[in-house]
Specification:
By secondary structure, the protein is an all-alpha fold. The protein is 85% helix and 0% strand. 0% of the residues are buried.
């Protein structure tokens, strides 16, 4: 029973590790274009409302 439980936990940990690495890759893949889009949005906001730019 104990060995069965151990292998099950190991398998679950392995799956978790794989999920995490996939998520990290996705985050790195997404965050690049996202920051660019954010900068563009900020530029547009600054163009629309220049009064709020200085604070």
């Amino acid at each position: 029973m104990a060995t069965e439980r151990f292998s099950f936990d190991q398998e679950r940990l392995f799956l978790l590790d794989e999920q995490l690495s996939v998520q990290l890759t996705l985050i790195q893949y997404i965050s690049g274009p996202f920051t660019e889009a954010q900068q563009q949005i900020r530029q547009k906001l600054a163009e629309v409302s220049p009064g709020h730019d200085h604070h």
